[in-house]
Amino acid sequence: MIVKVGKNGAIPLPDNEGCKFAIGDILLCKLTEDKCSIELEKFSDQSLNDQQIKAHGSLVRVEPLNPEDYK
């Protein structure tokens, strides 16, 4: 899947039942070996606060899509 990255690095998730992520989930982002894609997987510790997520460096929280990020 190819997606458009919005302002502040926003990436839209698929809007279908095959997507296993929900709003509020913490995801681990890993660059693939060919450096052409990013793998997203649910992080094992879902209790981190925003400061802990930022300090980790490779984590993001799933947030509602803001259409303003894509103008």
Q: What features would you describe in this structure?
A:
By secondary structure, the chain is mostly beta strands. The protein has one helix at 50-56; strands spanning 26-31, 38-42, 59-61. The chain is globular. The protein is built from one helix and three strands, in the order ββαβ. A hairpin with a 6-residue loop joins strand 1 (26-31) and strand 2 (38-42). The chain has a three-stranded antiparallel beta sheet with strand order 2-1-3.
How would you characterize the largest beta sheet? 3 strands, antiparallel
Percent of residues in helices comes to under 10%
How much beta, percentage-wise? 15-25%
Q: Give helix and strand order, one letter per element, not per position.
A: EEHE
Task: Indicate the structural class.
Answer: mainly beta
Kindly state the number of beta strands.
Answer: 3
Distance between the termini: 21 Å
Shape designation: globular
Overall pLDDT metric? 85
Gyration radius, rounded: 13 Å
Determine the number of helices (DSSP H or I, runs of at least 4 residues): 1
Uncertain segments are none
Spatial order of the strands forming the largest sheet: 2-1-3
What's a quick, concise take on this entry?
By secondary structure, the chain is mainly β. It is built from one helix and three strands, in the order ββαβ.
What descriptors fit this protein?
mainly beta, 3 strands, three-stranded antiparallel beta sheet, 71 residues, 10% helix
List the helices and strands and how they pair.
Elements: E1 26-31, E2 38-42, H1 50-56, E3 59-61
Antiparallel strand pairs: 1-2, 1-3
